[in-house]
Amino acid sequence: MEKQVRKIVTIxxxxxxxxxxxTIHAEIEKGIQFRGTNLWILMFAIVxxxxxxxxxSTAVIIGAxxxxxxxxxxxxxxxxxxxxxxxxxxxxxxxxxxxxxVSLLTSALYFFLSPINEAHSELLARTSPTIYDVLxxxxxxxxxxxxxxxxxxxxxxxxxxIATALMPPICTAGYGLATLQFNFFFGALYLFTINxxxxxxxxxxxxxxxxxxxxxxxxxxxxxxxNRALTAVILITxxxxxxxxxxxxxNENFSQHAEYFISQV
Length: 265
Fold this sequence. Notes:
The chain is mainly alpha-helical.
């Protein structure tokens, strides 16, 4: 029995395929940069995603998600918090804010110039995030950081980019800005915030579980402050999604009961 348990533990052991820590650090550090090539790719991806949302084309939106480099600084934030690398965290956060600003401006400019202003289903789908979006971001983020940390990268990263869907909400927020429809702007921005926070949180969990080396000496008081701030951000992001998820379930139950009642009449 003990032998069987050991076998099962070995099968699920992540450390046996773990990449060298310095290689992982270098890869994450490279991914946070937004200048030159990465910046142009981001802008092109934003335009592609905006066109897809405008034309209500799922295939085009998926293509934009595949070429977007937005996950780099998000993973950088989670990794740097797990390793207490505050210099890398500041760089990741700075590049992330810069990337979000460029994305919003690019998408808002596209929708401002576009002669088609109607909100199709692909735009509407990004305005009502729930707890289910939290689960998608968290488990997608876990898959992504595990893949980055492994020697066997596989084809997980493109799938994570599609599942967590960072591009459509930021483009929908740009649509809200361009058309002055702030329900679109705030709803989509909240979904984007959920994705960002829980992908970064997933990276933090995995990096701590795999015992990535601490990059700086941190006194206990500062650790407590960091942990309190993290807890606050996670709770503030999570609580509204639970409420919206509850509303969604209630609406679904009402619809099912109404359909059943109508079918019996």
